[in-house]
Amino acid sequence: MLDQKQIELIDRKLNQVHEVHVGQLLNITNRLVGQIEPNSNATIANCIEAFPRETLTAVNGYGDEIGQKITDTVTALNVILGKNDKDRLIATVERYLEESLYEKRFQVFLDSIQRKIGQYGKTVDLQQYRADIQKSLHDVGIRNMIRSKVVKVQNELEVLSWRSSGKANFEEIRAQSRKAEVEAQHFRKHLIGLNTGGVAFIIVILQLSKFSLSILTINSLVCFVSGLIGTMQSTDLAKTKALKRLEALKQGTNIPDFSKYNDRNQTVDRNSLYLFLAGAFFEVLELIRLWSEWN
User: Fold this and answer.
1) What is d(CA 29, CA 27) in angstroms, rounded to the nearest whole number?
2) 276-287, pLDDT tens digit by residue?
3) Which of 38, 53, 83, 125 is disulfide-compatible with 120, CB 3.0–4.6 A?
């Protein structure tokens, strides 16, 4: 069982990682805003599109470092983790992976753009660069990433508790857990990228059509956004299944059967892929329609 001093030690280590991460987020904002040229709309658009991507990359590394710091520290302390210990550690992880931090950073980024343009006696309407859509993509990506990192830490802590109580072969189970997590995250990362790219392409189409929404574009947008939501559901499903399996192993009971069609992560992930293909099909039809109008 972890005592208060050990909890405080873990918290101090995580706080050090957090401070470095906040500095990294600030650097992303300063670097992108520094690239903006007041007379170039392209530089503004590129920076707004780049911010969610670079922030997500930073959060990915930060989440991994938070998880690694906890597991390394708990391993070094050589303590037996109880349920309350794991709950307290997960609560600590969630505190350091707070979604509101990234929501605030996005708004700070937009405000910085306004100030940069204002220095030249100009104003800019960021809505013409679809900042609202980029913010939505940013928020969804951050939410998915945070959930996956919390699930990963939960799994790692369960494995650590098995090792400390002698209920399983630590190295073998840990290797299997990490392999499954990496493969699942890799596939969902591609799904998020495909559907996010689809939304970005819609923005281009809207600009070409002077923001005239057709039924084809609306259908495509619904498909891409639904695909992103499906990936979130898949992450939640993976979390639920992992926790149920781990609890069954811990209690020595039969492992739950998740072979039903609706219980498979592959089902949800496959549906997200199908939604992307449907959205892409609608966008191809929209391009054909626009081409016929222009000619």
Assistant:
1) 5
2) 888 888 888 887
3) 38
